[in-house]
Amino acid sequence: MTSPASAPFDPAPSPKVVVAPDSFKSTATAAEAAEWLAEGVRSVIRDAQIVLTPMADGGEGTSALFEGERVRLPTTTAAGRLTEAEYTYHAATKTAYIDVSAASGLPAVQDDPVPLTGDTYGTGVLIADAQTRGAERIVLGLGGTATNDGGTGILVALGVNPLDQAGYQLTPGGGALEHLASFDTAKVNVPAGAVEWVLLTDTTAPATGPEGAAHVFAPQKGAADADVEVLDRGLARLCEVADVDPATPGLGAAGGVGIGITWLSTMLHGDASHVHVLPGARVVAESNWLTEHIDGAALVITGEGRYDGQTGTGKVASVVGELAREAGAVFAVAAGRFDEQPADGTIAVVLPETDDVREQLIQAGAEIAVAYLNTSTVQG
Protein backbone atom coordinates (compact mmCIF):
# COMPACT_ATOMS: atom_id res chain seq x y z
CA MET A 1 0.00 0.00 0.00
CA THR A 2 1.26 3.48 -0.83
CA SER A 3 1.57 5.84 2.16
CA PRO A 4 -0.14 9.28 2.04
CA ALA A 5 3.23 11.02 2.27
CA SER A 6 4.48 9.32 -0.92
CA ALA A 7 1.34 9.77 -3.03
CA PRO A 8 1.04 13.46 -3.97
CA PHE A 9 -2.12 14.87 -5.47
CA ASP A 10 -2.49 18.10 -7.38
CA PRO A 11 -6.05 19.32 -7.24
CA ALA A 12 -6.93 22.41 -9.20
CA PRO A 13 -7.26 25.13 -8.27
CA SER A 14 -4.67 25.10 -5.49
CA PRO A 15 -6.53 25.14 -2.17
CA LYS A 16 -5.80 27.69 0.52
CA VAL A 17 -5.01 25.90 3.77
CA VAL A 18 -4.79 27.69 7.13
CA VAL A 19 -2.86 25.85 9.85
CA ALA A 20 -3.67 27.28 13.30
CA PRO A 21 -2.76 24.88 16.13
CA ASP A 22 -2.23 25.40 19.83
CA SER A 23 1.04 24.29 21.38
CA PHE A 24 1.41 20.67 22.42
CA LYS A 25 2.44 21.01 26.05
CA SER A 26 6.17 20.57 26.64
CA THR A 27 6.64 18.85 23.25
CA ALA A 28 5.97 21.38 20.49
CA THR A 29 5.36 25.11 20.40
CA ALA A 30 2.42 26.38 18.40
CA ALA A 31 4.83 27.59 15.70
CA GLU A 32 6.52 24.19 15.49
CA ALA A 33 3.18 22.38 15.40
CA ALA A 34 1.97 24.62 12.57
CA GLU A 35 5.16 24.07 10.56
CA TRP A 36 5.09 20.28 10.94
CA LEU A 37 1.39 19.91 10.19
CA ALA A 38 1.93 22.04 7.10
CA GLU A 39 4.84 19.85 6.04
CA GLY A 40 2.49 16.88 6.10
CA VAL A 41 -0.12 18.74 4.05
CA ARG A 42 2.47 19.70 1.42
CA SER A 43 3.55 16.08 1.08
CA VAL A 44 0.07 15.33 -0.25
CA ILE A 45 -1.15 18.63 -1.76
CA ARG A 46 2.08 19.96 -3.24
CA ASP A 47 0.78 23.28 -4.48
CA ALA A 48 -1.41 24.15 -1.49
CA GLN A 49 -1.36 27.81 -0.49
CA ILE A 50 -0.55 27.35 3.18
CA VAL A 51 -0.89 30.08 5.79
CA LEU A 52 0.69 29.37 9.19
CA THR A 53 -1.12 31.04 12.09
CA PRO A 54 0.10 29.66 15.45
CA MET A 55 -2.55 29.98 18.16
CA ALA A 56 -2.95 30.05 21.92
CA ASP A 57 -5.79 30.58 24.38
CA GLY A 58 -4.10 32.03 27.42
CA GLY A 59 -2.15 28.91 28.31
CA GLU A 60 1.43 27.93 27.62
CA GLY A 61 3.01 29.86 24.74
CA THR A 62 0.49 32.72 24.61
CA SER A 63 2.86 35.58 25.44
CA ALA A 64 5.40 34.48 22.81
CA LEU A 65 2.83 35.09 20.05
CA PHE A 66 2.73 38.82 20.76
CA GLU A 67 5.18 41.37 19.41
CA GLY A 68 7.86 42.74 21.72
CA GLU A 69 11.08 42.03 23.56
CA ARG A 70 11.40 38.67 25.29
CA VAL A 71 12.45 39.25 28.91
CA ARG A 72 13.95 36.43 30.97
CA LEU A 73 14.63 36.61 34.70
CA PRO A 74 14.96 34.48 37.85
CA THR A 75 11.76 33.69 39.73
CA THR A 76 10.15 30.72 41.48
CA THR A 77 8.00 27.76 40.47
CA ALA A 78 4.63 26.92 42.00
CA ALA A 79 6.57 24.86 44.55
CA GLY A 80 8.77 27.82 45.49
CA ARG A 81 11.90 26.50 43.79
CA LEU A 82 14.22 28.82 41.90
CA THR A 83 13.69 28.88 38.14
CA GLU A 84 13.79 31.27 35.20
CA ALA A 85 10.80 32.43 33.18
CA GLU A 86 10.13 34.63 30.18
CA TYR A 87 7.51 37.14 29.19
CA THR A 88 7.07 39.63 26.32
CA TYR A 89 7.32 43.39 26.81
CA HIS A 90 6.15 45.76 24.07
CA ALA A 91 7.66 49.12 25.00
CA ALA A 92 5.78 51.18 22.43
CA THR A 93 2.40 50.30 23.94
CA LYS A 94 3.74 49.83 27.50
CA THR A 95 2.19 46.37 27.53
CA ALA A 96 3.58 43.19 29.08
CA TYR A 97 2.32 39.78 27.98
CA ILE A 98 2.80 37.24 30.76
CA ASP A 99 1.75 33.59 30.90
CA VAL A 100 0.96 32.45 34.43
CA SER A 101 2.21 29.04 33.29
CA ALA A 102 5.69 30.46 32.58
CA ALA A 103 6.60 30.53 36.27
CA SER A 104 3.65 28.80 37.91
CA GLY A 105 2.99 26.07 35.35
CA LEU A 106 2.31 22.40 35.84
CA PRO A 107 5.30 20.93 33.91
CA ALA A 108 7.80 22.18 36.51
CA VAL A 109 6.05 20.26 39.31
CA GLN A 110 4.32 17.42 37.46
CA ASP A 111 6.55 14.82 39.12
CA ASP A 112 5.67 16.19 42.55
CA PRO A 113 2.37 18.13 42.32
CA VAL A 114 1.51 20.83 44.85
CA PRO A 115 -2.30 21.19 44.63
CA LEU A 116 -2.72 22.51 48.19
CA THR A 117 0.52 24.45 48.66
CA GLY A 118 1.46 25.62 45.17
CA ASP A 119 1.26 29.38 44.67
CA THR A 120 1.62 32.06 41.99
CA TYR A 121 4.32 34.10 43.73
CA GLY A 122 6.69 33.52 40.79
CA THR A 123 4.20 35.10 38.41
CA GLY A 124 3.96 38.10 40.71
CA VAL A 125 7.73 38.54 40.37
CA LEU A 126 7.32 38.79 36.58
CA ILE A 127 4.48 41.30 36.96
CA ALA A 128 6.51 43.50 39.31
CA ASP A 129 9.47 43.39 36.92
CA ALA A 130 7.30 44.38 33.97
CA GLN A 131 5.96 47.39 35.82
CA THR A 132 9.49 48.61 36.62
CA ARG A 133 10.24 48.49 32.87
CA GLY A 134 7.31 50.82 32.23
CA ALA A 135 4.38 48.49 31.73
CA GLU A 136 1.03 50.15 32.31
CA ARG A 137 -0.96 47.22 30.95
CA ILE A 138 -0.52 43.57 31.90
CA VAL A 139 -2.01 40.94 29.61
CA LEU A 140 -2.04 37.84 31.76
CA GLY A 141 -2.53 34.45 30.10
CA LEU A 142 -4.49 32.21 32.45
CA GLY A 143 -3.97 28.55 31.68
CA GLY A 144 -1.70 25.59 32.30
CA THR A 145 -1.04 26.38 35.95
CA ALA A 146 -0.16 24.06 38.83
CA THR A 147 -1.87 26.31 41.35
CA ASN A 148 -5.24 26.78 43.07
CA ASP A 149 -4.39 29.82 45.19
CA GLY A 150 -6.83 32.38 43.79
CA GLY A 151 -3.91 34.61 42.81
CA THR A 152 -2.85 35.17 46.43
CA GLY A 153 0.75 34.30 45.56
CA ILE A 154 0.74 37.19 43.10
CA LEU A 155 -0.67 39.42 45.85
CA VAL A 156 2.14 38.44 48.23
CA ALA A 157 4.73 39.23 45.53
CA LEU A 158 3.08 42.65 45.18
CA GLY A 159 3.21 43.36 48.91
CA VAL A 160 -0.23 42.17 50.05
CA ASN A 161 -0.30 39.57 52.81
CA PRO A 162 -3.36 37.35 53.41
CA LEU A 163 -4.02 36.95 57.13
CA ASP A 164 -5.97 34.52 59.29
CA GLN A 165 -8.32 35.47 62.14
CA ALA A 166 -5.41 35.77 64.58
CA GLY A 167 -3.52 38.13 62.27
CA TYR A 168 -0.91 35.63 61.11
CA GLN A 169 0.05 35.36 57.47
CA LEU A 170 -1.43 32.34 55.72
CA THR A 171 0.88 29.66 54.42
CA PRO A 172 1.16 29.60 50.59
CA GLY A 173 -1.38 27.86 48.39
CA GLY A 174 -5.09 27.28 48.12
CA GLY A 175 -5.16 24.78 50.97
CA ALA A 176 -4.97 27.57 53.54
CA LEU A 177 -7.50 29.94 51.99
CA GLU A 178 -10.49 28.70 53.98
CA HIS A 179 -8.84 30.36 57.00
CA LEU A 180 -8.53 33.77 55.30
CA ALA A 181 -9.83 36.68 57.37
CA SER A 182 -8.31 39.82 55.84
CA PHE A 183 -5.44 41.33 53.86
CA ASP A 184 -2.54 43.42 55.12
CA THR A 185 -1.98 46.13 52.49
CA ALA A 186 0.57 48.26 54.33
CA LYS A 187 3.34 47.41 51.85
CA VAL A 188 1.30 47.03 48.67
CA ASN A 189 3.10 47.78 45.40
CA VAL A 190 0.66 50.40 44.20
CA PRO A 191 2.15 51.04 40.72
CA ALA A 192 2.13 47.33 39.88
CA GLY A 193 -1.33 46.69 41.27
CA ALA A 194 -2.85 49.73 39.57
CA VAL A 195 -2.02 48.73 36.00
CA GLU A 196 -4.68 47.90 33.43
CA TRP A 197 -5.28 44.16 33.65
CA VAL A 198 -6.36 42.01 30.71
CA LEU A 199 -6.98 38.43 31.82
CA LEU A 200 -7.02 35.92 28.96
CA THR A 201 -9.01 32.85 29.96
CA ASP A 202 -9.08 29.44 28.32
CA THR A 203 -12.32 28.50 30.06
CA THR A 204 -15.64 30.01 31.08
CA ALA A 205 -15.63 28.16 34.40
CA PRO A 206 -16.69 30.12 37.51
CA ALA A 207 -14.54 30.28 40.62
CA THR A 208 -16.41 27.75 42.74
CA GLY A 209 -19.00 24.99 42.65
CA PRO A 210 -19.24 21.78 40.61
CA GLU A 211 -18.11 23.59 37.44
CA GLY A 212 -15.52 25.70 39.22
CA ALA A 213 -11.75 25.80 39.46
CA ALA A 214 -11.32 23.16 42.15
CA HIS A 215 -13.80 20.55 40.94
CA VAL A 216 -12.93 20.76 37.25
CA PHE A 217 -9.22 21.55 37.15
CA ALA A 218 -7.62 20.70 40.52
CA PRO A 219 -7.64 16.92 39.88
CA GLN A 220 -5.41 17.55 36.86
CA LYS A 221 -3.02 19.30 39.24
CA GLY A 222 -2.77 16.36 41.61
CA ALA A 223 -5.67 17.07 43.97
CA ALA A 224 -7.44 14.13 45.62
CA ASP A 225 -11.19 14.24 46.25
CA ALA A 226 -10.71 15.58 49.78
CA ASP A 227 -8.28 18.21 48.47
CA VAL A 228 -10.85 19.40 45.95
CA GLU A 229 -13.34 20.15 48.71
CA VAL A 230 -10.71 22.05 50.72
CA LEU A 231 -9.75 24.09 47.68
CA ASP A 232 -13.35 24.86 46.75
CA ARG A 233 -14.07 26.09 50.28
CA GLY A 234 -10.91 28.17 50.16
CA LEU A 235 -11.79 29.86 46.89
CA ALA A 236 -15.31 30.50 48.18
CA ARG A 237 -13.85 32.14 51.28
CA LEU A 238 -11.46 34.22 49.15
CA CYS A 239 -14.38 35.45 47.05
CA GLU A 240 -16.28 36.35 50.22
CA VAL A 241 -13.41 38.34 51.73
CA ALA A 242 -12.54 39.92 48.38
CA ASP A 243 -16.21 40.75 47.67
CA VAL A 244 -15.97 39.08 44.25
CA ASP A 245 -18.86 37.19 42.67
CA PRO A 246 -17.71 33.54 42.44
CA ALA A 247 -20.18 32.87 39.60
CA THR A 248 -18.39 35.25 37.22
CA PRO A 249 -17.50 33.31 34.04
CA GLY A 250 -13.76 32.83 33.62
CA LEU A 251 -12.79 33.33 37.27
CA GLY A 252 -12.08 29.60 37.51
CA ALA A 253 -9.16 29.91 35.11
CA ALA A 254 -5.64 29.36 36.50
CA GLY A 255 -6.89 28.26 39.89
CA GLY A 256 -8.86 31.47 40.40
CA VAL A 257 -6.07 33.97 39.69
CA GLY A 258 -8.65 36.50 38.54
CA ILE A 259 -10.12 36.67 42.05
CA GLY A 260 -6.99 38.10 43.61
CA ILE A 261 -6.34 40.44 40.67
CA THR A 262 -9.91 41.76 40.73
CA TRP A 263 -9.74 42.41 44.48
CA LEU A 264 -6.37 44.21 44.19
CA SER A 265 -7.45 46.46 41.34
CA THR A 266 -10.77 47.25 43.00
CA MET A 267 -9.03 48.08 46.25
CA LEU A 268 -6.71 50.55 44.46
CA HIS A 269 -9.20 52.10 42.01
CA GLY A 270 -12.49 51.82 43.88
CA ASP A 271 -14.08 49.54 41.27
CA ALA A 272 -13.17 46.72 38.88
CA SER A 273 -13.13 48.88 35.74
CA HIS A 274 -9.40 48.24 35.21
CA VAL A 275 -9.83 44.46 35.01
CA HIS A 276 -10.95 42.90 31.74
CA VAL A 277 -11.66 39.16 31.60
CA LEU A 278 -11.56 38.09 27.96
CA PRO A 279 -11.57 34.80 26.03
CA GLY A 280 -7.92 34.15 25.29
CA ALA A 281 -8.30 32.33 21.98
CA ARG A 282 -10.52 35.07 20.58
CA VAL A 283 -8.03 37.78 21.56
CA VAL A 284 -5.12 35.87 20.01
CA ALA A 285 -7.17 35.19 16.87
CA GLU A 286 -7.82 38.90 16.54
CA SER A 287 -4.20 39.88 17.13
CA ASN A 288 -2.80 37.47 14.54
CA TRP A 289 -5.51 38.17 11.93
CA LEU A 290 -6.83 34.60 11.95
CA THR A 291 -10.30 35.59 10.71
CA GLU A 292 -8.77 37.41 7.75
CA HIS A 293 -6.46 34.47 7.01
CA ILE A 294 -9.38 32.03 7.07
CA ASP A 295 -11.34 34.11 4.57
CA GLY A 296 -11.29 32.15 1.31
CA ALA A 297 -9.66 29.08 2.86
CA ALA A 298 -10.75 25.64 1.69
CA LEU A 299 -9.30 23.82 4.70
CA VAL A 300 -8.55 25.00 8.24
CA ILE A 301 -6.44 22.80 10.52
CA THR A 302 -5.91 23.09 14.25
CA GLY A 303 -4.35 20.81 16.83
CA GLU A 304 -4.01 20.25 20.56
CA GLY A 305 -2.86 17.57 22.95
CA ARG A 306 -6.31 16.41 24.02
CA TYR A 307 -9.77 17.12 22.66
CA ASP A 308 -12.18 16.75 25.58
CA GLY A 309 -15.11 18.26 27.43
CA GLN A 310 -13.13 21.40 28.23
CA THR A 311 -12.35 22.12 24.58
CA GLY A 312 -15.70 23.75 23.98
CA THR A 313 -15.32 26.21 26.87
CA GLY A 314 -12.90 28.49 25.03
CA LYS A 315 -9.93 26.36 23.97
CA VAL A 316 -8.14 26.98 20.67
CA ALA A 317 -9.79 24.11 18.79
CA SER A 318 -13.32 25.31 19.51
CA VAL A 319 -12.62 28.90 18.46
CA VAL A 320 -10.75 27.92 15.28
CA GLY A 321 -13.56 25.52 14.45
CA GLU A 322 -16.20 28.23 14.86
CA LEU A 323 -14.28 30.60 12.57
CA ALA A 324 -13.73 27.86 9.99
CA ARG A 325 -17.42 26.94 9.88
CA GLU A 326 -18.42 30.61 9.62
CA ALA A 327 -16.13 30.90 6.57
CA GLY A 328 -17.50 27.72 4.99
CA ALA A 329 -14.16 25.92 5.16
CA VAL A 330 -13.54 22.25 5.90
CA PHE A 331 -12.32 21.97 9.51
CA ALA A 332 -9.78 19.46 10.78
CA VAL A 333 -8.35 18.69 14.21
CA ALA A 334 -5.20 16.73 15.05
CA ALA A 335 -5.01 15.64 18.68
CA GLY A 336 -3.14 13.19 20.85
CA ARG A 337 -6.48 11.80 21.97
CA PHE A 338 -10.19 12.47 21.58
CA ASP A 339 -12.24 12.07 24.75
CA GLU A 340 -15.16 13.72 22.95
CA GLN A 341 -16.08 13.72 19.28
CA PRO A 342 -15.94 17.03 17.40
CA ALA A 343 -18.93 18.41 15.53
CA ASP A 344 -20.24 16.54 12.50
CA GLY A 345 -18.23 17.18 9.38
CA THR A 346 -14.95 17.70 11.25
CA ILE A 347 -11.93 15.74 10.10
CA ALA A 348 -10.53 14.27 13.34
CA VAL A 349 -7.08 12.68 13.27
CA VAL A 350 -5.39 11.01 16.22
CA LEU A 351 -1.63 11.50 16.31
CA PRO A 352 0.16 8.25 15.43
CA GLU A 353 1.98 6.41 18.22
CA THR A 354 5.63 7.41 17.94
CA ASP A 355 8.03 9.23 20.26
CA ASP A 356 8.98 11.71 17.53
CA VAL A 357 6.54 14.62 17.85
CA ARG A 358 7.63 16.15 14.56
CA GLU A 359 6.93 12.91 12.74
CA GLN A 360 3.58 12.58 14.53
CA LEU A 361 2.45 15.96 13.29
CA ILE A 362 3.79 15.49 9.77
CA GLN A 363 1.89 12.22 9.47
CA ALA A 364 -1.24 13.82 10.92
CA GLY A 365 -1.00 16.67 8.41
CA ALA A 366 -0.70 14.19 5.54
CA GLU A 367 -3.67 12.17 6.83
CA ILE A 368 -5.78 15.32 7.10
CA ALA A 369 -4.85 16.32 3.54
CA VAL A 370 -5.91 12.92 2.17
CA ALA A 371 -9.18 13.06 4.11
CA TYR A 372 -9.80 16.59 2.79
CA LEU A 373 -9.19 15.45 -0.83
CA ASN A 374 -11.57 12.54 -0.36
CA THR A 375 -14.17 14.88 1.15
CA SER A 376 -13.84 17.47 -1.61
CA THR A 377 -14.05 14.74 -4.26
CA VAL A 378 -17.22 13.31 -2.73
CA GLN A 379 -18.75 16.76 -2.49
CA GLY A 380 -17.79 17.49 -6.09
Automatic annotation (TrEMBL):
Gene Ontology BP annotations: organic acid phosphorylation
Keyword Transferase included in the entry's annotation: yes
Enzyme class: transferase
Record GO terms (molecular function): glycerate 2-kinase activity; glycerate kinase activity
SUPFAM superfamilies: Glycerate kinase I
Pfam family, one: Gly_kinase
UniProt entry tagged with the keyword tRNA processing: no
NCBIfam families cross-referenced by the UniProt entry: glycerate kinase
Family recorded in the similarity comment: Belongs to the glycerate kinase type-1 family.
Name by which UniProt lists this protein: Glycerate kinase
Organism: Corynebacterium mucifaciens
